[in-house]
Write a structure and sequence with these properties.
The complex is a heterodimer of chains A (194) and B (1272).
Chain A: E1 2-9, E2 14-19, H1 25-40, E3 49-51, E4 62-68, E5 71-77, H2 83-101, H3 106-111, H4 113-123, E6 124-125, E7 128-129, H5 134-167, H6 170-174
Antiparallel strand pairs in A: 1-2, 1-5, 3-4, 4-5, 6-7
Helix pairs in contact in A: 2-5, 4-5
Chain B: H1 2-16, H2 20-29, H3 34-50, H4 54-69, H5 78-85, H6 90-103, H7 115-122, H8 127-140, H9 143-156, H10 162-178, H11 183-192, H12 199-215, H13 224-233, H14 237-250, H15 255-271, H16 275-292, H17 300-315, H18 319-335, H19 337-341, H20 344-351, H21 356-369, H22 375-388, H23 392-411, H24 417-427, H25 436-449, H26 454-466, H27 490-501, H28 509-516, H29 526-546, H30 551-569, H31 574-596, H32 601-606, H33 620-623, H34 642-659, H35 661-668, H36 676-689, H37 696-712, H38 723-747, H39 762-786, H40 791-808, H41 828-831, H42 870-897, H43 902-922, H44 926-938, H45 941-949, H46 952-968, H47 973-1001, H48 1003-1016, H49 1021-1030, E1 1034-1038, E2 1042-1050, E3 1057-1066, E4 1077-1085, E5 1091-1093, E6 1105-1106, E7 1111-1112, E8 1116-1125, E9 1132-1144, E10 1147-1159, E11 1165-1166, H50 1172-1181, E12 1186-1193, H51 1200-1210, E13 1214-1219, E14 1222-1229, E15 1234-1241, E16 1246-1253, H52 1256-1271
Antiparallel strand pairs in B: 1-2, 2-3, 3-8, 4-6, 4-7, 4-9, 5-8, 9-10, 11-14, 12-16, 13-14, 14-15, 15-16
Classes of the chains: A alpha+beta (194), B alpha+beta (1272).
Chain lengths: 194, 1272
């Protein structure tokens, strides 16, 4: 079982949080902070597993994370999950984001917080892995987007135009921000995904 | 005007409102006043939520979602979230469900409003709407939602869209967690999904079953063959990993399964390229090897393969693989430590790794790799690491590990305890450690267990005390601000205790006494100070004893201490103060004695600390059994008022302390200072027991009994036979002193952070041992040279040499009686770790092999009237129809399969009709019928047949046989698979044969059986009534005119009433009386002690009752009477008569018939439902105080099922459980008196019945009645 999925940046700012067990908002923030502290002090060339933090989990839980450019992707899982399997799952997640946002960067995650959640919903459900086939996930997301568009109809185009105008300002900010690069998995011989 | 503006705002609202983008951008632009800005935004959002436009609301909720992520509580908007969820547009619905999944939880009260909304969405035509609903539901499922929606989810599991199927399958796990009752009815369908053509659905099913099996593996053992097949077929690595992990959980339960697995797993290991799969395979192979354990030589190859692969992993440059490799290696360590030791080099390398996780893992491995030979070397390396290591956490970890490694198995690997003590002493020099307590207890342990080391350790400890100042005293209080605190001063606790207790070994006790009574001591924590006071006392006693002839010296010493003790006398710590005061009093008394009559003082003092202390296991205190009949919570006397109590206890305690001083002091000298408070409380408890006006005599008695108690108490172990160890000690003594001298000269040039002169260094011992080794090697060489001619001699020498080694190792005292008497040494504390009462998996420990019972069904979605909306009903109705058809088809197919089944089929059908009807009676809702069918479809064909016969025993055996067969098979896999499939068919045949037999044997019996089944279920009482009315009227009395029979049943409308139906038959056969008519029938009834006829005509009990009908020839009629029941525990006999007139051709005759109606106890039983939990709750509640057992002969029943069948058809009994030849039955009377019965089929055609109830006569009567029915 997956207990929590967190994404935060190099400064510990949360970009996505999904807890499959109830915690109060304060507790959630504490967990994010603690996890950030645990993860951020580790070099990039050490292993990606950590025995669980004190706030989340216990002896049975592990923190499995990956660091991509400015973002940390952290999964807190129990012993029924395969460690390497989860690492691959994170890779699938990131690749899916990359496909859905076309060269995903941190800003995409910031401004499309809801969309990232929807993508995650297709990947994991209630703490269990739902789908590991990236193409399937992308297909579903696209279909849902189409459904959304069709519903928006005329009124939608109006609001879309507005967001387009609004978004013009963002381009100034985006310039400085690096794209997230997807490093190849080192020698993992990763799992076949279909 | 207002309305117009609002309308305009509604339609253009979106343009002016902030959306998520704007919010995020706003927050980023207001970094300075983020909180203020967000507060403004929340106000805006609140305004937006008040509008009617759903788009505006959805937008607001979307923003709230973001705020929730950055830590704002949005539970106040729960209701609005539901509003958005209920939107008809997917766009908004999705937002609503997202918000719900982020914030809702079991405690959210508005969740109860969502049931129908979610049900509607689950039934939606759009698969994405349905999918969104399932995804959301998975996050906020509650027990209520799970129960109400499980049927919908079950339907979705058979959806034609894989997207929906996989989600529905996956959410089942969550449903089981919240609503365990759903597991058994839905499991067959879940099992089907293992064969789903869509890989992602299959993966979901595997996922769910693996999660279930992980917590309760034994219930899923029978699925092993299916998974085995899947493993050989599947190519999906995710699925394979899950399955292989599952096997890892199953093998400990079934070693044969493990043996079967090894080969295919090693094949995967050798062939796969996916590291994750490889790693999991290795893990499971290791688990298998652990379960097989008893060294099977042919599996060595498997271990070898694993080790080889693990070595590759560890040597890999990828840190992740290295980490996992080490993790797996530690599993091999448990079974094959030797094979791991070969890789010592590799693991030592990993100790130097820059990655802390990896270092910690390799530390774990080191633990298992030490031996007598390499212990010193390894520890030295660890010590070096420790001085280099950064971060206190890792250093503390190292320290704990060092102690762990050395102390494992009672210091099995420590050959030189002086070395070990010096390691410990060196460890005290670690800065900022938090393991002071650990070190301290370790020192105590060594000092107590290893007698030979005492002179050495005492010397070392006195040095530590002399240098008390170097221990960071100020930093010893743990607090939040002081993160660098260290409890290293704890070692002083051990040091003083050791010096005090083994004062005889001190070289200069006076000097130690002086440094112990320095004023610096008062800076230490209270509990350490009290140890100081106590041990100053001990030292003092020792010195007095030593200088017993020199009274002046004694006096001087006493004066000195009286002076010194004054600093403790007013200590803020109560414990210190108390000890200091009593010590002072004793000192003053001694002073007095020295003045008046000095002879014998030393002996009297000495007696205070007589006796030797022995180690006590840490769990011993907890394990002391509470003596039977002792209730520690009960007051012995009435609780006194507060004031009184205070006075009493203080005076009593003084009293006892004076009288029992010896015991008390002695108990203080127990193991270390920490226990003292425990012991003290036990003493004061003893004090409380004594009445205030206790006489001297009683006290003496009390003392006596305490003495006896103490003697029999293992904690006060008397002098041991020390002859052996003594001799050893004397041998080693001289050695030890010379050692320590040599150390002193050596240790000068060592680098110790703050060096304490005289403190030893483990390094020197390490060097010495090296030199020793060298010497030995040299010797060996010499010897081997000398003895080259005869090899035999050489080997002999070797043995001798080894023996020599052994002799040098000091004896570690391990006592068998470290635990109190009457305690079994099982580590039962650890076994229950899973049984955390909060763990939801506890409820899922459900046997899945047992066939489904009638009452085990998913709750049908009986819509509550009023809430019901039209739409879902329609869709449901549409959905059900095709299913019914398919169901029908299935049945047809089955029919053609075997004709012998037809008989059952028809019977089954009739049963269906019946149940359908009965349900119809209750709820006239077509959906219910649909679900009825639905439920039946759940059962696999195999299952159905079995439930009809309800022979769970046979079924279980068969299943067991399947597994047995599969496990014991040695043939190739493919053949087996075929066999498994084939096996199903012969089984069916077997069943049908059986059923035939049954039918021919006793058709009536079967009828009854099927009837009784209905009773067991949750079928409503009405149905039970219908069935009862079919029950046979029993003969009561008859004469030539009239036959009376009766039927008794409880009144379900009023549980205090019994209904007795009387049936009158006109049986006049006399030809003369042809065309006769019995009329004017009057009934006279006498009430019994517990039965009272309820009369509507308000006449007195003695008046006769008119029967409102007359009977023509050979006709019958019946009438019911209600009786009020006041007692259910005895059977009753109702006496009465009928007076009637026969009109015939011959005229009219008056006649009468007397009758006695036996009303057995069992007629007061009412149908109840009871499940296993409830049943065991009753049994363990202690309320069922009456017991009764009975045995009877049975010859005409073949198994327990037929007996149960008879019983349940005759009485209102609820079958709880059948295991092999025993069955448990529950019943309840009208007065709600529970009856629990266990029937057991014994070998020689006897049946034993044991019953428990609240009333003795009740249980006796009931069992006797059961007996008469069975043995008829």
């Amino acid at each position: 079982m997956i207990k929590a999925i967190l994404i935060f940046n190099n400064h510990g700012k949360p970009r996505l949080s999904k807890f499959y067990e109830h915690y109060s908002e304060d507790m959630q923030q504490q967990i994010i902070r603690e996890t950030f502290q645990l993860v951020s002090k580790r070099d990039d060339n050490v292993c990606n597993f950590l025995e669980g933090g004190s706030l989340i989990g216990g002896s049975d839980y592990k923190i499995i994370y990956r660091h991509y450019a400015t973002l940390y992707f952290v999964f807190c899982v129990d012993s029924s999950e395969s460690e390497l399997g989860i690492l691959d799952l994170i890779q699938v997640f990131v690749e899916t984001l990359d496909k859905c946002f076309e060269n995903v960067c941190e800003l995409d995650l910031i401004f499309h917080f809801d969309k990232v959640q929807y993508i995650l919903q297709e990947l994991c459900m209630g703490g269990m892995v739902l789908e590991t086939n990236m193409n399937e996930i992308v297909l579903r997301i696209e279909e849902m987007n189409k459904l959304e568009k069709s519903e928006a109809g005329l009124g939608g185009s109006q609001s879309k135009a507005i967001t387009a105008v609004k978004e013009m300002n963002i381009s100034n900010i985006t310039q400085k921000i690096k794209d997230i690069k997807l490093p190849e998995l080192p020698n993992l011989g990763s799992i076949k995904l279909s | 005007m207002d309305a117009a503006i609002r309308k305009a705002k509604d339609s253009f609202g979106q343009i002016f409102d902030k959306n998520l983008h704007d919010l995020v951008r706003g927050i980023r632009n207001h970094k300075e006043h983020e909180a203020k800005y967000i507060a403004e935004c929340i106000d805006e959002i609140k305004q937006e939520l008040k509008q009617d436009n759903i788009a505006v609301k959805a937008n607001a909720i979307n923003k709230l979602c973001y705020l929730q992520m950055i830590g704002y509580d949005i539970s106040w908007a729960s209701f609005n979230i539901i509003e958005v969820m209920s939107s008809t547009k997917f766009t908004f619905k999705r937002i609503g469900y997202l918000a719900a999944s982020q914030t809702f939880h079991e405690g959210t009260d508005v969740l109860m409003l969502t049931t129908n909304l979610i049900r509607k969405d689950l039934g939606s035509q759009s698969m994405y709407e349905c999918g969104v609903a399932i995804s959301g539901l998975a996050c906020f499922l509650t027990p209520d939602l799970a129960r109400d929606l499980v049927n919908e989810i079950m339907n979705l599991m058979t959806s034609n869209k894989p997207y929906i199927r996989k989600k529905a399958v996956l959410i089942m796990y969550k449903i089981f967690l919240k609503y365990p009752d759903a597991l058994r009815p839905s499991f067959p369908r879940l099992k089907e999904k293992l064969d789903d053509p869509e890989p992602s659905v299959q993966a979901a099913a595997v996922n769910v079953i693996c999660e279930l099996a992980r917590k309760n593996p034994k219930n899923y053992l029978s699925l092993a063959p299916i998974f085995f097949k899947l493993m050989s077929v599947s190519t999906n690595n995710w699925v394979l990993i899950k399955i292989i992990k599952l096997f890892g959980a199953l093998t400990p339960l079934e070693p044969r399964l493990g043996k079967k697995l090894i080969e295919p797993l090693t094949n995967i290991i050798n062939s796969t390229s996916a590291m994750s799969l490889l790693y999991e395979c290795i893990n499971t192979v290791l688990a298998v090897l652990v379960s097989i354990s008893s060294g099977q030589p042919n599996h060595n190859s498997a271990i070898e393969v694993c080790l080889q692969k693990l070595r590759i992993l560890i040597e890999d440059s990828d840190q992740n693989l290295k980490y996992l490799g080490l993790l797996a290696m530690s599993k091999i360590l448990q079974t094959n430590p030797k094979s791991v030791q070969m890789h010592k080099d590799l693991i030592m390398q990993c100790l130097d790794d820059k990655d802390e996780s990896i270092r910690l893992r390799s530390l774990d491995l080191l633990y298992g790799m030490v031996s007598k030979k390499n212990l010193m070397e390894i520890i030295k390396k660890l010590m070096m690491h420790m001085s280099k290591a950064e971060g206190t956490h890792y250093r503390d970890e190292l320290l704990a590990k060092i102690i762990d490694i050395c102390s494992q198995n009672n210091y099995q690997f420590v050959t030189n305890f002086e070395w070990y003590v010096s390691v410990l002493v060196e460890l005290t020099r670690m800065e900022g450690t938090r393991h002071g307590k650990l070190l301290s207890s370790q020192m105590l342990d060594v000092a107590i267990r290893v007698e030979t080391i005492r002179p050495f350790i005492v010397a070392q400890m006195s040095i530590l005390i002399d240098n008390m100042h170097v221990f960071a005293i100020t930093n010893s209080i743990p607090s939040k601000e002081n993160k660098n605190y260290s409890d290293i001063c704890e070692v002083l606790n051990a040091a003083t205790w050791i010096c005090g207790e083994f004062a005889a070994n001190l070289q200069n006790p006076m000097k130690t006494l002086e440094s112990m009574s320095k004023s610096k001591v008062t800076n230490l924590p209270g509990h350490i100070q009290s140890t100081f006071v106590q041990n100053i006392f001990k030292l003092y006693v020792h010195l007095i004893k030593k200088n017993s002839q020199d009274y002046d010296e004694c006096k001087r010493l006493t004066d000195y201490l009286i002076d010194k003790m004054k600093i403790f006398e007013q200590n803020s710590d109560i414990e210190v103060q108390e000890r200091a005061c009593s010590f002072l009093q004793i000192l003053k008394y001694v002073l007095k004695m020295l003045d008046s009559d000095p002879s014998g003082v030393e002996n009297e003092l000495w007696s205070l600390f007589e006796g030797e202390l022995n180690p006590v296991a840490p769990k011993a205190q907890r394990k002391v059994p509470v003596p039977e009949g002792l209730d520690l919570d009960a007051w012995i006397n009435d609780p006194p008022s507060d004031e009184e109590q205070n006075d009493l206890t203080s005076s009593q305690e003084n009293h006892i302390f004076v009288k029992n001083e010896k015991f008390e002091l002695k108990s203080y000298t127990s193991y270390g200072g920490n226990n003292s408070s425990d012991i003290k409380t036990s003493v004061s408890v003893g004090a409380k027991k004594i009445q205030p006006d206790i006489s001297e005599e009683d006290l003496a008695k009390y003392k006596e009994s305490r003495k006896i108690q103490i003697e029999s108490n293992p904690f006060y172990i008397k002098q041991m036979k020390k002859s052996e160890s003594n001799s050893l000690m004397s041998n080693n003594m001289s050695k030890a002193t010379s050692y320590s001298e040599s150390i002193r000269s050596q240790s000068i040039d060592l680098k110790i952070p703050i060096s304490i002169p005289g403190v030893t260094s483990s390094d020197s011992y390490y060097r010495m041992s090296k030199i020793d080794d060298e010497n030995k090697k040299l010797k060996k060489k010499m010897k081997s040279k000398a003895g080259k001619d005869s090899k035999k001699k050489k080997s002999k020498n070797d043995v001798e040499e080894d023996d020599e080694d052994e002799e040098n190792i000091p004896v570690v005292k391990i006592l068998a009686n470290e635990m109190p008497d009457g305690v079994n040494n099982d580590s039962d504390d650890d076994k229950n770790k899973f049984k955390d009462p909060k763990d939801p998996h506890r409820a899922l420990d459900i046997d899945l092999d047992e066939p489904l019972k009638d009452y085990e069904r998913l709750p049908t979605s009986g819509y509550r009237p009023g809430i019901l909306t039209d739409k879902p009903k329609k869709t449901n109705g549409l959905k059900e129809e095709p299913k019914k058809e398919s169901n029908h088809k299935k049945e047809e197919k089955k029919k053609s399969k075997s004709k012998s089944k037809d008989a059952e089929k028809s019977e089954k059908k009739s049963r269906h009709k019946k149940s359908d009807k009965s349900v119809d009676l209750l709820v006239s809702n077509d959906t219910v019928n649909g679900h009825e069918n639905e439920y039946n479809e759940l059962l696999s064909p195999e299952h159905e047949i079995k439930t009809v016969i309800t022979e769970s025993k046979i079924k279980k055996q068969d299943q067991g046989d399947d597994l047995e067969f599969w496990l014991s098979g040695t043939k190739s896999e493919e053949k087996e698979e075929v066999k498994i499939e084939e096996k199903i068919e012969p089984k069916v045949e077997k069943k049908s044969k059986k059923s035939k037999k049954d039918e021919t044997k006793d058709e009536k019996k079967k009828e009854k059986k099927s009837k009784s089944k209905g009773k067991n279920g949750h079928h409503d009482l009405k149905q039970a009534e219908i069935e009862d009315s079919k029950n046979i009227y029993k003969h009561v009395a008859s004469n030539k005119h009239l036959n009376i029979s009766c039927l008794m049943r409880p009144n379900h409308m009023n549980l205090n009433q019994l209904i007795i139906g009387l049936r009158l038959d006109n049986i006049t056969t006399d030809d003369k009386l042809k065309n006769s008519e019995i009329s004017s029938i009057e009934l006279n009834l006498l009430n019994t002690s517990s039965l009272k006829l309820i009369r509507e005509d308000k006449k007195s009990a003695n008046d006769s009752i008119r029967i409102p009908f007359s009977l023509s020839n050979s006709s019958q009629n019946e009438i019911e009477y209600f009786f009020e029941v006041s007692d259910c525990t005895y059977g009753q006999i109702l006496k009465g008569n009928f007076i009637y007139i026969i009109k015939s051709d011959l005229g009219t005759i008056q006649d009468k018939i007397d009758f006695k109606l036996k009303i057995p106890c069992s007629s007061f039983l009412i149908p109840t439902s009871c499940d296993n939990d409830e049943f065991s709750k009753w049994l363990s509640s202690g309320q069922l105080t009456s017991k009764y057992s009975i045995k009877c002969n049975i010859s005409n029943y073949e198994d327990i099922n037929s007996i149960l069948g008879i019983l349940t058809s005759n009485f209102h009994l609820t079958k709880i459980e059948i295991v092999d030849n025993t069955a448990s039955i529950f019943a309840s009377t009208m007065k709600h008196q529970p009856i629990c019965i266990l029937i057991k089929l014994l070998g020689n055609e006897t049946l034993s019945m044991d019953g428990k109830s609240t009333s003795q006569s009740l249980i006796e009567n009931i069992l006797d009645e059961l007996k008469t029915v069975i043995s008829v």
